[in-house]
């Protein structure tokens, strides 16, 4: 093979892998902090039977677990055995197509449950949960990653459940919502809470201004906010072969504000011009105002308009933005102000400050020297007002996943700890788990756990400390 051909990097890391690994005593470059004892769980789309034209968001979920203990590391990955995955595994072929709807000609006896449990994975009240926003949580065995099945808390919840629940650091309760709560592509929403012991303490439904894909929401000490942004859902479009979800800016943007101990009928809807947000960094209360740091774009990425035309790549890049809400009743508008110009996604904080004023945040960023739309290739560390405190860029052809913060100890100061990031080495077509000093990312990783295979680009994950 000519040398020039040998060093051309693989162009992306989206393709699935088809091996479930169990690897121990992984090679570590540098030294893993001895205080890092636990497991980083990560989830992402990894279709068992890839089909042409399938959207990245709808592949089967695959969990990746990096277990760190006393300076040593091991790795395990498993597909989530959803009803869809099991049916296709038994058939030996794809049975579901776009938006995980059954393909034409598939027998009626085959499950219609197209859930993929592919977006997030977190631990709460003794349960490890794989999440995606169209179905209830799927419970996973913590050590083996075996699938236990749907968890509806004894029938106390029903319908879709967000992939981004929020765990209150003070009360320990998990707050959640769901969209399409009254049927596919409807404006019905749900909201609920589960206490630190795993008991459902609330489950209500309400109607939003229009049907929309609602990926994330906002929680503060006393309020819950529901962003309804114009990535609209339409059964009329879907039945005519048009995009079920599409960018429709004429609808404008709405954010519903509800007191955590209030009623859904008392939600106050704030308005603004069209924009889009997949992910929220954090939010807090400041007197009669709510301030929220979000990753905002002017148009939605990865989707089309109602006629199937792609959105503008420049306007679809997300940047850190401050949303402000005046709760005094003087206005029904919320304001938006960009805090930085770097393209980024997957914002995270020290979760012990969720819903409270925070001084540290991190997100994955794009390389400004490369065309818009290519992989995220660096990390940014910011203060609570979005000012940069650190910036690290990977070598050309490498890309990063979502950064996850791990505190040095339960009572360590905010931001005192490490940032864990899965890195794809494009020239070698394999992945590392990188450990950064969270408040000094500029120096680069202090340790690398080295795999001999890829971890495909994925979505979200969380650290679970050893018990």
Throw out a few tags for this protein.
metal ion binding; oxidoreductase; Carotenoid_Oase; 467 residues; 33 strands; five-stranded antiparallel β-sheet; disordered N terminus; globular; EC 1.13.11.-; mainly beta; dioxygenase; 3 helices
Topology:
Layout: H1 3-6, E1 22-23, E2 27-30, E3 38-45, E4 61-69, E5 72-79, H2 83-91, E6 120-124, E7 127-131, E8 138-140, E9 147-150, E10 166-167, E11 174-179, E12 188-194, E13 200-207, E14 218-219, E15 223-228, E16 231-233, H3 235-239, E17 245-247, E18 253-259, E19 268-272, E20 276-286, E21 289-297, E22 319-326, E23 335-338, E24 344-349, E25 361-366, E26 376-382, E27 388-393, E28 399-400, E29 404-407, E30 417-425, E31 430-437, E32 447-450, E33 461-465
Antiparallel strand pairs: 1-5, 2-32, 3-4, 3-33, 4-5, 6-7, 7-8, 8-9, 10-11, 11-12, 12-13, 14-15, 15-18, 16-17, 18-19, 20-21, 21-22, 22-23, 24-25, 25-26, 26-27, 28-30, 29-30, 30-31, 31-32
What does this structure look like?
The protein is mainly beta and 467 residues long. The chain has a domain at 171-342. Helix content is 4%, strand content 40%. It has helices at 3-6, 83-91, 235-239; strands spanning 22-23, 27-30, 38-45, 61-69, 72-79, 120-124, 127-131, 138-140, 147-150, 166-167, 174-179, 188-194, 200-207, 218-219, 223-228, 231-233, 245-247, 253-259, 268-272, 276-286, 289-297, 319-326, 335-338, 344-349, 361-366, 376-382, 388-393, 399-400, 404-407, 417-425, 430-437, 447-450, 461-465. The strands form 8 sheets. Strands 2, 28, 29, 30, 31 and 32 form a 6-stranded antiparallel β-sheet that branches. A hairpin with an 8-residue loop joins strand 18 (253-259) and strand 19. The longest helix has 9 residues, at 83-91. The chain is globular and about 55 Å long. The termini are far apart. It holds the Pfam family RPE65.
């Amino acid at each position: 093979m000519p040398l020039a051909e040998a060093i051309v990097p693989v162009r992306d890391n989206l393709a699935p892998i088809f091996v479930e690994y169990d690897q121990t005593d992984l090679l570590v470059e540098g030294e893993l902090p001895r205080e890092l004892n636990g497991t980083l769980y990560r989830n992402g789309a990894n279709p068992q039977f890839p089909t042409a034209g399938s959207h990245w968001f709808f592949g089967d979920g695959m969990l990746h677990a990096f277990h760190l203990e006393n300076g040593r590391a091991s790795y395990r990955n498993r597909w989530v055995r959803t009803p869809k995955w099991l049916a296709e595994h038994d058939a030996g072929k794809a049975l579901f197509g776009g938006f995980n709807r059954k393909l034409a000609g598939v027998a009626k006896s085959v499950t219609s449950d197209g859930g993929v449990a592919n977006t997030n994975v977190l631990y709460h009240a003794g349960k490890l949960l794989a999440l995606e926003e169209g179905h209830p949580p799927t419970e996973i065995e913590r050590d083996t990653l075996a699938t236990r099945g749907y968890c509806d808390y004894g029938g106390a919840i029903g319908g879709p459940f967000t992939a981004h629940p929020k765990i209150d650091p003070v009360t320990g309760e998990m707050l959640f919502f769901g969209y399409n709560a009254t049927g596919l592509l409807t404006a019905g929403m749900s909201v609920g809470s589960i206490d630190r012991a795993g008991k459902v303490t609330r489950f209500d439904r309400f109607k939003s201004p229009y049907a929309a894909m609602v990926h994330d929401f906002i929680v503060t000490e006393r309020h819950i906010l529901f962003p309804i942004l114009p990535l609209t859902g339409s059964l009329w479009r879907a039945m005519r072969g048009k995009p079920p979800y599409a960018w429709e800016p004429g609808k404008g943007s709405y954010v519903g504000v509800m007191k955590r101990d209030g009623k859904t009928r008392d939600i106050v809807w704030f308005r603004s011009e069209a924009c889009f947000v997949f992910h929220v960094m954090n939010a807090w209360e400041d007197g009669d105002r709510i301030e929220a740091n979000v990753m905002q774009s002017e148009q939605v990425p990865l989707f089309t308009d109602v006629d199937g035309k792609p959105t503008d790549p420049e306007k679809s890049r997300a940047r850190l933005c401050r949303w402000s809400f005046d709760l005094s009743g003087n206005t029904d508008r919320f304001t938006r102000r960009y805090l930085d110009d770097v393209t980024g996604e997957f914002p995270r904080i020290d979760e012990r400050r969720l819903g409270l004023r925070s001084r540290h945040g991190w997100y994955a960023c794009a390389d400004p020297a490369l065309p818009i739309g290519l992989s995220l290739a660096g990390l940014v560390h910011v203060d609570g007002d979005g000012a940069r405190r650190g910036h690290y860029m990977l070598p050309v052809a490498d890309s990063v996943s979502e950064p996850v913060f791990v505190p040095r100890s339960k009572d360590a100061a905010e931001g005192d700890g490490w940032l864990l990031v899965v890195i794809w080495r494009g020239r070698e077509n394999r992945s590392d788990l990188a450990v950064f000093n969270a408040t000094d990312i500029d120096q680069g990783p202090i340790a690398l756990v080295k795999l001999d295979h890829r971890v495909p680009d994925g979505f979200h994950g969380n650290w679970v400390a050893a018990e």
